[in-house]
Amino acid sequence: VALAEPPHPPRGDRGSLWQLRRATRRSFGPIGEAICSRRALALMRFVPSLPRFARARYLSPRHPWSTRPRDVPSGLRTVAGITRDSAAEIEAARTEPLQEYQQVHYHATNWGNRKLWRAILPAAPRLMRSMKKASATAHIQPSEPVEQIRRDELTRQVKEYAATIGMSAVGVARYDPKYTYVQYHGQEVGDRVIVCILEQNWKMTQNIPSAVAEQVSISTYAEVIDQSAMLAEFICSKGYRARAQGMHPHGIAIHYGVAAGLGQLGLNGQLLTPDAGSRCRIVLVDTDAPLVFDEPVDYGVPAICDACKACVRRCPSGAIPSNRKMYRGVLKAKINTARCHPVVAQAEGCAVCMRVCPVQRYGLGPVLDEFERSGKVLGIETDDLEGYDWPLDGKHYGPGERPLLQPEFFNPPEAGFDFTRKLPLTSDKQKTLI
Ligand code: SF4
Ligand code: SF4
Predict the structure, then answer these.
(1) DSSP state of 174
(2) Which residues, 6+ apart, have CB-to-CB distance to 30 below 8 Å?
(3) CA distance linking residue 304 with residue 313, whole number of Å
(4) What is the pLDDT of residue 33?
(5) How far is CA 400 from CA 196, 382, 387, in A?
(6) Residues with a CB atom less than 6 Å from ligand 1
């Protein structure tokens, strides 16, 4: 398999142009950060969107993923979905129920959002409108069922509709209180969760880490949230309740993606789908429609990760451990969020761990083909896959090189808080972001 051409040649030190852009960013920074405050963002839904031609270069592909990859070689098979210890999962949920990250790390998340103003602002009007549309689905009264539809026929219609409106993939999983944030316990509208996925533009994603790549991710969120609201309205028209959860899902979206057979957990902590790796955005719709459940699948991802570990090597802050351990009853590499979050906030969303993943760049099929042919992971230790331009110094870092981040980077004095600090939960006053 030939490696794809990089979107642009390695640029090395960007010199005066980069210095100019950095100075401009500094000048406009305070204004951008003020507009990205929670209150100002809420008003962005009244601002017109950028015209479609201005967004054309980073729009998502509008066709459903058509096929599943070929059979996984027997040497790469492990388990369908993820290795679990059910008793430990139940115990973890009982003793330490999951909490929504944005609420527990309220100050860090708000501070980080403001730092990402260059990425957020261009897509914010569409994002805020789609979130409004999604939250309105909670109040839709379902129509009287016009006809009694069989479960499999209803499921087919829902998936067909999702494909018609341009979603890349949908799957159905069982609602699971263990993976629901404690803030949303008891608020579910039914016993099923529909996982909605939209692929993110390939070419623009290869510019990670950069403001424009982060802008693509936010734009993709705006698109898929809008689509999920349309899907919820469609289900309501069939006589069932459905609620689009919007930007902040009520539980762990990756858990539901694995349970619905749409991918497997990568070492980078993301859902690796066979078609696009983690280069996609996931949102959830909960419903009482009696849809047929999908099942977890073994795509060979854990074995590929064991041979790859590109994200572990390339993470600028060393936040990804190289080995998995049981964590809350699930075998995974637990990301160190206190190392990751400051980088995401200050380095244009970072996401190097997504950028350097061969499944994201080439798709799982070619990666499996190459592994079967040569025993190697496609692209590993090449600049094409592992090299990136670092937005904080304008330099290119190839395989074996990483930017140097000083200790104060992880607790910047200007932020005025500690990234490891957690807020106590208050049930009467839940904090929401945007
Ligand atoms: S987002 Fe960046 S800092 Fe965080 S885990 Fe990924 S590569 Fe590391
Ligand atoms: S970069 Fe490699 S190790 Fe990391 S998630 Fe992707 S395939 Fe797995």
Answers:
(1) E
(2) none
(3) 15
(4) 72
(5) 36, 10, 9
(6) 315-317, 319-320, 335, 340, 343-344, 350-353
